[in-house]
Amino acid sequence: MPIEIKRKGGRREFRQVSFGSTAVDLTQYSNKSLFSNRLCGASLSEPRAGTGVHGVPKSVLVGLGLQCGDGILPLHQPFWGKEMRRGSLKMLAVFVLAFSAFVSAQSYTIIDLGALKGKNESSGLWINNLGDVVGCSDMQTSMGYPCTGLVAGQHAFYWRRGKGMKDLGTLSGGSVSGALGLNDSGVVVGYSNVKGQPATNFIAVRWSSTGTISSLGTLSGGSSSAAFQVNSAGEASGDSFLSSGMVNATRWTNNKISNLGKLKGSIFNAGLAINDNGLIVGESVFSYGPPFTSHGFLWNGSTMKDLGTLLGGLTSMANSINSLGVIVGQSDGISTLGHWHAVKWDATGKIKDLGVLRGGTYSVAFGVNDSDVVVGYGNIATNAPHAMIWTASHGMRDLNSLIPANSGWTLINANSINNVGQITGYGSHNGRNHAFVLTPVN
Fold it and tell me: Domain count of the chain?
């Protein structure tokens, strides 16, 4: 699920935007700088058209200039014999149809990751190729979603099958942390607050494979930063405040920070994801509006490229990139009627609208693996947010239709998918929001 970061006097507050039924009138926030972050392994939801974004488990710092409630883009309307072979083929066809029916009814097994000791909620933000998960865990609040970043005691976790959930702790004297990215070597990145600073003033951090935490610092003069993802070489992407109060996209190499700059005319930039080739994607905000305007970007190692939007759109965001250079995120456009739609940019930069769930009006893509399988969330006919999966062969499907019908789960957001096809995110189970791992049965 997503997280918002509201800037107050040079500091940022991380907080998830609710997906719930409450739509927030964005006009009352038109003079405030609101930053959305996928920190909580959720997604960036948008608000209801004409009013009012939700998002972090791999949550990510993204400038949104508004507060969203249910996922609608704000402030924008615009060798045998022939007979034997035939018989065999008929039998095979019957088997394939039967198996397909089984798979469509139950394509994944599900594991409840639980919560850290003394807490009751959690969200999975990233899953590596070993099936290990990182995220955050806290106490349930009236906001209706986990990992707001506002509650003292929210801690980052590392979950490993057979070993359960480990508390990663905070920087010395801190009270809040979140783990957003994880590589196959067990290196984790995210954020933590620090002693002597406001509770919501976060600093980018790195946990070694042994669990030791260290600060990654900020750009010169900056008061706050966050690291969102880490690749196999240990390079991380993120953002940092500058002394001017602006925010620029960043990269950490050998734990040393560098400024990636910004798109021309932008006022906020965040590097939300990095792949194993060192390519970084994210979002650049041009205006908090109305109308709010932003574009996804791709940093190729030397320059930042504007990824644009769907035809006629005002906003886009690039949330994830796989090792082949395929990028996913969200965009509005003439065809989306003022809503965000999950989108995919191919390696040449061509954008594709991935559509919405049946009966829904909006969708957001948070993760993509090297098979171009995309995960995220979108609303359904009742406007409830549901975790989704998109493939070229099946289009967009509700993940709730692909788990056992009697599981007791409602999967709300899918934040990350690994190259094995395992998915993490969060959903409602027995009255609590818990992180999950889905594993393909086939």
Answer: 1
